[in-house]
Specification:
Largest sheet: 6 strands, mixed
Oligomer: single chain
Strand content: 25-35%
Number of helices: 10
Helix content: 25-40%
Mean pLDDT: 93
Length: 261
């Protein structure tokens, strides 16, 4: 039995206008579908390909010029603000810039707990704190000194891991990650992907944005390759890595560092 789609994007076109009134097409007729129940899809492409715009469009943060986005079966364009808020609470979102994402006035532990507080989840403070610590531990953060630190005292890699824990605080059905390992070393990057895969094994679906095809294949069973706002290739991760069809995909693979054996 195939799980129903929780995200359906159909012929989505997004344009941005510059100060000179010129328009830039960030997405051009993009379509995709992501099933619930633990499906993982990676979006791959170089800077400016439209990856982040696609991720933000998926939760209604970017208005479309044409096409449609359905999240959990609900059309986002024109949806009432209350309905949009309810739909977004079923998602976790990890933005690309960890330096501007965390609340600067909160400690790490308070920043991770904050989504539950904002959502009005009824939970004892000690229990909420314990859950936040467990989420941070999933991403290798166990030091009480880090828990008490504010964002300004953290490295970029630490901030990314805190953002991941924060995004999981509400137990999302869908996690949207925008380059969540870009500031990690190779070993930590692998540990983070393993932690996310354990989550998808337990039924959380994921949309994972990266410029690294090898990382995409590790994180997700299917890949979409974006170039200049258009999908140039899509399919199972292994198939794309072993027998890429599009010249752009081949170039991305050729640019990957060679593995030392």
């Amino acid at each position: 039995m195939t799980a129903e789609a929780i995200l359906e994007i159909n012929e989505l076109t997004v344009e941005f206008k510059s100060r000179g009134a010129k328009s830039h097409t960030a997405l051009d007729g993009v379509s995709l579908s992501l099933a619930g129940g633990g499906a993982a899809l990676a979006i791959v492409g170089e800077s400016g390909s439209g990856k982040s715009t696609l991720l933000r469009s998926a939760i209604g943060l970017v208005p479309p010029k044409a096409g449609s986005v359905r999240l959990f079966g609900k059309e986002l364009d024109g949806a009432p603000a209350r309905e949009l808020t309810a739909l977004r609470r079923r998602c976790g979102y990890v933005p690309q810039d960890p330096y501007g994402a965390l609340p600067p006035g909160l400690s790490v532990i308070d920043a991770v707990m904050e989504p539950e507080i904002i959502a009005g989840v009824k939970r004892a403070k000690a229990e909420r704190r314990e859950l936040a610590k467990e989420l941070l531990a999933e991403f290798g953060l166990t030091d009480e000194r880090i828990f008490a630190s504010r964002a300004v005292g953290l490295s970029g890699g630490q901030r990314q891991r805190v953002e991941l824990a924060r995004a999981l605080m509400l137990g999302p059905e869908l996690l949207l990650c925008d380059e969540p390992t870009s500031m990690q070393d190779a070993s930590t990057r692998g540990e983070i992907i393993e932690a996310l895969r354990r989550r998808t094994d337990r039924g959380m679906s994921m949309l994972f944005v990266t410029h690294d095809l090898r990382l995409a294949a590790f994180a997700a069973e299917n890949i979409i390759v974006l170039k200049d706002g258009k999908i140039c290739e899509s399919g199972p991760s292994r198939e794309i890595m072993q027998t890429p069809r599009h010249s752009y995909t081949k170039a991305l693979i050729d640019a990957l560092p060679k593995l030392v054996r």
